[in-house]
């Protein structure tokens, strides 16, 4: 999917590398959330084992799911992207 958007995909050596690429693509390259929501949930550890970024993303995804207006949902996605950019350097 990333290659289809003209993004060079590095060789991934672990599942964590893939998750890092996923975060970079979402936060820095502004690709749509629907590509990443499932993997966000799959990768996320149990609540007590989550780091600050994982906890923020899960909390914001929950908030987004409860929004009824499209503009409010997009605002939450913008907050998610900002959280990623604050924790993950551009790739």
Primary descriptors:
91 residues; mainly alpha; 4 helices; 58% helix; 0% strand
Explain this structure to me?
The model has no long low-confidence stretch (mean pLDDT 84). This protein has one domain (15-87). Helices cover 58% and strands 0% of the residues. Helix 1 crosses helix 4. It is mainly alpha-helical and 91 residues long. The longest helix has 18 residues, at 70-87. The chain has helices spanning 15-27, 37-43, 52-66, 70-87.
Biggest beta sheet attributes: none
Q: What form results from the Cα inertia axes?
A: globular
- Rounded mean pLDDT is 84
Give the % helix: 55-70%
Poorly predicted residue ranges: none
How many domains would you count in the coordinates?
A: 1
What is the terminal separation in angstroms? 16 Å
Kindly provide the radius of gyration, computed on alpha-carbon positions and rounded to a whole number of angstroms.
13 Å
SS field, number of helical segments: 4
Secondary structure category: mainly alpha
Counted beta strands: 0
What portion of the residues fall into strands of 2 or more residues? under 5%
Helix/strand order: HHHH
């Amino acid at each position: 999917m990333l290659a289809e958007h003209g993004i060079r995909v590095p060789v991934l050596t672990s599942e964590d590398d893939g998750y890092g690429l996923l975060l970079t693509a979402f936060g820095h390259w502004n690709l749509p959330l629907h590509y990443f929501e499932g993997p966000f949930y799959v990768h996320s550890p149990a609540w007590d084992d989550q780091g600050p970024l994982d906890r923020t993303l899960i909390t914001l995804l929950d908030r987004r799911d409860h929004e009824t207006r499209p503009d409010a949902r997009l605002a939450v996605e913008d907050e998610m992207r900002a959280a990623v950019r604050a924790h993950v350097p551009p790739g």
